Amino acid sequence: MKLRVRHAALLFLLLTACPTPAYAYLDPGTGSMLLSVLIGLLSSAYFLMRKLPALFRAVLFNATGKGKLLERKHIAIYGETANYWGTFRPLLEEFGRRGESVEYLTSSENDPCFKAGLPDCITCRYIGTGNTAYTTLNFLEADALVLTTPGIDVLQIRRSKGVKKYIHVVHSLSDIHSYKLFAFDYYDAVLCSGQYQADSLRLLEAQRGTQTKELPLVGCPYMDALAARREREKDSVKPEGNCVLVAPSWGKNGMLTRYGAAVPRFLAEAGYKVILRPHPQSFISEKPLMEQLQRELASFPNIEWDRNPDGFASLSRASVMVSDFSGVVFDFAFVFLRPVVTLSYELDKRGFDAFSLPHPSWESQVVEQLGHRLDPAELEQLPGIIEKLASDEHFPERILHIRENNVANFGKAAVPVVDAILNIASEKE
Amino acid sequence: MLDLIYLICIAPLEFCMRHILDWGFDLTKSYGPALIFMSLAVNTVILPIYNKVEGWQEEERALKARMAPMETMIREVFKGQERFAMISTLYRQHGYSQFMTLRASIGVLLQIPFFFAAYHLLSNMEALHGVSFGPIRDLGAPDELFVVGGFSINILPILMTVVNLVSAFFYTHDLSRRDKIQLYGMAALFLVLLYNSPAALTFYWTLNNVYSLGKNIVEKDWMKRQGWIAALEKLAEQRTRLAQRAAVLWARALSMQVGLSAVVAVLGGAGLFMLVRGLLGHGKYSFEMSAMIFGAFLLFIGICYFAEEKVERLKKMTLPQALAVLAGIIGVSYILAKYGFHQGNEKKVAVKMALVAGAACLLTYGRTLWGTMYAKIAPQKNTLGALFLPSAGLIAFLIFVYCPFMVFSSDPAVFGMRLEDFASSRFGMFFVAMICLAVFGGLVRPVKWIFGSAFSMMAFAALAFCFVVAPDVGVMDAFVFQKPEALTRWYNTYIDAAVAAVIVLFFVIAVQSNKAKIMMNVVYASLTVLVVMTGVHYFDVSEKQFKNSYTEINDGGMPQYVKDFYTFSKNGKNIVVVMLDMFTGGNMNQILEQYPSIKTDLDGFTWYEDVVSSGSLTILGKPGILGGENCHPVKLNEDRTKSLEEKISKEYGMFFRKLQHYDYKLSIHDVEFFEPELLAPYLESEHYTNFVPHKESALWPDASKLWAQKNNTNLYNNQKFDIFWNIISLFNVSPVTFKKYFYCDGGWMSSVSKGNYDFTHAAINLANLELPSYISSVSDDDKNSFIYMFNLMTHVPWAIDENGMPCPNGASFESRDIKNHGVSASHVRAEYYSLKTLLKWFEWMKDNGVYDNTQIILVSDHGAHDSKEIVKIWNDIYPIALHSLLLVKPINTRGELRIDRTTPMSNSDVPHIIMNEIITVQSEKNFPWKDTNRERVCVSGEWRRENHPKNNFEFSMVYKIRGPLYDKNSWVKIK
Q1: Distance (Å, rounded) from C-alpha A345 to C-alpha A252?
Q2: I need a surface site. Which of A213, B294, B302, B969 has the fewest CB within 10 A?
Q3: Nearest to B411 among A22, A182, A350 (CB)
Q4: Rounded CA separation A118/A244 (Å)
Q5: Which of A25, A38, A182 sits opposite B475 (nearest CB)?
């Protein structure tokens, strides 16, 4: 507004900057002629100014050959990395089946989308990484933008004036606690997989006075994709007898950060075949720690490091998983129906939405039922627990029951998710 | 730049403080108590502001405290850009902005302008020098109350600091360390700054600190102990509840009185009626009735449109029901029109009808209508409330700054003010208004949306009235419009109604479509444009003033006809006739008595004392001066087949023709009856003429500007325009119908005094009388020259002071009383200075060798009722102002003024006197004054030409003088 007014005033100024001399007579201070001109000018200037940002953007985008990006879309999807292909693939396929035209924007140059053979109504476009991508997103014109990136309008991705609805699709079953501060505050909708997510979000809304979001309970397409793959590759999915997958999270609350090599070494010493699969981010953010661990564990031949971006193989081979609060726990438990031992310790909530949430997270309550919750002080009991869990024949049955109660539309989330997106996109502001 | 800051921020404060101090001095007759009074007054006035700021500080502190845990956590966990983003989001969610910190520190900043104002006022105040108060010897110097071994110490600044520190020490527990250091720092700074200041200033500042300490004690100690704080909070709560209740009441009242319906009603009824009236000429009763019924229907439907449930009811209406309603409306309208209002005029009937219909509809549907409106208003209350300050500010800016700037900039010279002074007074008013509005806005917070709505509509109305539908009143000359009739057009009311309707409609539509924000945009856009325009005018004026001082002084754009007017012949003869309007012949005696030197100055002149004018008013007494006895009103009335103008032009023409015959170039400036087109047939076209038939009363009105510059004065410098600015602004922003009440026929609600007109009048005439003494020229050709001019300096209001300069209040300061033995001091003075001014010209003639070949005649068209000798014979008031001036200097005559007290002259003898100088004739006819039984007739009547018939004058009185003027027996009343 400020800008517009200033421009209007400037235009007006140019037109009236040459006042006429008025010798002995006084102008009573009205001059309706002048003001008719003013009103005309003001209104046209006002509308011109309103259009100016869009005009400027168009010039900029056409100059950089990205003119197409400016066309208004009904639905756009943004994949920050190729890792989210699992989440978006079921959705794109469902959109394709319905013939809905969708623009898929990615920051990964070799995103699988380009080779996925999607129908014509789905357009895939690489928009660069970092600031290049954010600029595009900040000027986007769409009825709805679907993405997995948290922190909209807090971190680099600002809300574009041209996008009516920002929709988050969950890509893990985790509760809101484990997300970075203010992760969802400026979304218009979060497509949840469990009621616990919606409950936590409502609590935050009330506490922070942010806008009320739409929180439909539709499921987790990422889990569906994983389950589908397991189904496809079920012949090769066979657990190896005493193979234990150690898959911790990263960061200050990660098991490896807290307890170093203790867990894998203990398991190796106990004679298990150990697959150690640190979070891929660990090799970027915690390099010295990784190097130190590699040195410490070099002497154990039964410890196998897994650095493959795709963890499917490791998940398939292990019969039991040892982890911390990582979301991978649910991949293992709900998709492969195998038990998980979770190291339980006090988490540092600072920097996470957990800081603002008074109640314990859903996962902290449910892990007990997915296997065993273990106090790190009682590490020596681990072999016994693993033994017991591996031999429990009723375990898959119980897991299925838990999954049924906590995850909406498992295995068939794509349809309700797409329904929800189309619904939200066609709503008026 | 600093100057400008001072003018805008500090000068208005200083102005107010000075007035308070003067007021205090008037009350107590001493500056000590006056300073205490000023301190009390100033601090009490700004107390609410301080309280508000303290409220802000507390608000900010509380908010900070609420955010503290999160903020600390974010600072611990995040770094760099991410930390910034997180903290920004935290602030955003808590509605905290950096502006709040700034706002909270206003408390400290606020002291600065007050400090500078006090500093500027008290450290430079002459009146304080040598004034003692208690132990202080001299308020105008440092106190030096304590002397140690010849070294004096100023106690007041130290006392001031001590009080300040006590206050800071005991009452700032809840402040942060930084804030405390700031306070102590300020105390130290004041000590250093003020240590050597005059005692008045340090005393004043000590009082301020005592006040602040007292305030702290009362607020933070005593009130807390007495449980006052709790009580006050309870009171505030009750106030809020009460305000809310009042708001509901207000809203109901609003729906009853000034809602949309009233406007629709007025428009529907009266507007339609006027349309029909306009289309059909003067439509009689039936048309009015139908127009009213249509109006009522429009209203009915309009209201139904907004009250949806009523529409449903309307749809369900059966045909007989609808017909019954229609019949009812017609019947009621008929009865009301016939028995209720038929005595009023048609317009009034229409308006009343419409109002009744509107009121009826409102009574029925008002609540539903209001309910519909209020449902939309409720969620937008904040936006509407936020409209209050900008809208009220827009109005204040229009009134206090923009409109005055427009008027001022059109000709700054008129107002005799420096642009900076003007600007500071205007901006000062504006800022004071803004502070008041802001405080008001804070007080009415619960119902602020009502004020926001009302003020936004008022702001739009003000803009519309000022710019869109402003009537064309022409330019202003001496504060009088050229076309004031635009203020009383019959359709002005309808324009007002239309503007009101459009604005209310705009408001309703904006609110109904949930877009109250649009109004905010409009307000801000308009405000910006006005500010920019003001800026343009500011620079325009400063440019103009700059130019003025360089170019205009030389000739001020003097027109060619003025430059050519006073051209004398070197070798031939010159005749100069100066008609001095209302110069009383008898007053020459007073002039000679009071200013004896004039006797020698009037070198070669003869004063004829016994002179009767042919009329007591200009249009009756003047024609004879150039037209001779044939132009005497009585003579003119004889032939009633021709218009007065034709008859007079004929006589003038014959006289001018004679002059042309003797090779005279004619320069003539006159007003009534001087019509060159009518004269033309009598003249020889090959002769040079310089005819100035001005409708204005002076040869060159702008001569006064040149005169003002030469005399380093200003035409309006004796007038204060402070109130005028506000009145003309109100004039501009008010509805068209009301404008005339502000205009008051040029009186501007008495904000421009009549005295100002007097001053201008005197200045213009004085300037024009002085003009020939420095612009006359001498021509070498052999042509003779005839110059006729007139001047109104001797006419009322006689606004000439003792020094011969124009004065603002004319003769009203002293007696204009003709009962004062027939002597009016101001008239005599004006007459004397007119002669004195002409003497400068005569000096010029002498210097340029054209005095001796010039015949000079000073004559008046009539006198005033103040001729001493005549008043004496008539016992105070005599009936007809007939005593004219006649001073004649023949060619080649010098010597002291001769006085002829007996020759019976008339002012219509002038053509004879002239012709006798040009040619030597012996006919008796050319010397009518030689007849000792001469009868001289003087007539009286209306002073304006249009009040006389076309072909003759109408006399209210006719007197015949047979014999000496000073003998009452000579006076014979004919009518």
Answers
A1: 12
A2: B969
A3: A22
A4: 38
A5: A25
Buried b (16+ CB within 10 A) or exposed e, B13-32: bbebbbebbeebbeeeeebb
Residues of A near B (Cβ–Cβ under 8 Å) read 1, 4-6, 8-10, 12-13, 16-17, 19, 21-32, 34-36, 38-39, 42, 46, 151, 153-155, 181-182, 185, 208-210, 350-351, 355-356
- Kindly determine whether residue A209 and residue B93, on different chains, have CB atoms separated by under 8 Å: yes
The pLDDT tens digits for B586-610 are: 999 999 999 999 999 999 999 999 9
Instruction: Residue B122: name the closest of B141, B143, B144 by CA.
Output: B141
Tokens 């100002």 — which residue? B756
Chain A CB contacts of B469 below 8 Å: 32
Q: Which of B854, B964, B957, B958 is nearest to B905 (CA)?
A: B964
Separation between Cα atoms, residue B524 and residue B937, nearest integer Å: 72
CB contact under 8 A, A32 and B468: yes
Query: Average pLDDT in the A282-301 region?
Result: 91
Q: How far is CA B733 from CA B468, B496, B729, in A?
A: 11, 12, 6
pLDDT at B714: 63
Biggest CA pair distance of chain A: 110
> Which residues of chain B make contact with A185, given a CB cutoff of 8 A?
89, 93
Cβ proximity of B442 and B52 under 8 Å = yes
Asked if the Cβ–Cβ distance from A28 to B533 is below 8 Å, we say: no
Cβ of A181 and B74 within 8 Å?
yes
Q: A17 and B78 in contact by Cβ < 8 A?
A: no
Tell me: cis bond preceding B797? Omega within 30 of 0 counts. yes
Q: Is the pLDDT of residue B839 over 80?
A: yes
Contact check, Cβ <8 Å, A28/B705: no
Position B243 scores a pLDDT of 67
* Encoded amino acid at A312, one letter: F
Helix (H) or strand (E) holding A389: helix A382-390
Q: Which two tokens stand for residue B152?
A: 């004096």
Tell me which chain B residues have a C-beta less than 8 angstroms from the C-beta of A17. 536
Residue B857 in this model has a pLDDT that exceeds 90:
yes
Q: Give the pLDDT band (50/70/90) at residue B363.
A: low
Inter-residue contact B315 to B278 (CB < 8 Å)? no
Q: Which residue from B minimizes the CA distance to A12?
A: B529
CB B620 within 8 A of CB B906: no
What percent of chain B stands above pLDDT 70? 78
Is B258 an 8 Å CB contact of chain A? no
Contact B536 A8 (CB under 8 A): no
pLDDT band at A29; cut points 50, 70, 90? very low
Bond prior to A383 in cis (omega within 30° of 0): no
pLDDT over threshold 80, residue B911: yes
- Whether chain A has a CB inside 8 Å of the CB on B533: the answer is yes
Statement: residue A425 has pLDDT above 50: yes
C-alpha A124/C-alpha A76 separation (Å) is 10
Which is it for the CA torsion A263, A264, A267, A269, positive or negative? negative
Tell me which residue has tokens 């790190």. A376
The pLDDT of residue A219: 93
- B493 vs chain A: nearest CA distance in angstroms? 18
**Range with the lowest mean pLDDT among A169-183, B82-96, B467-481, B719-733?**
B467-481
A–B interface: beta-carbon pairs under 8 A: 131
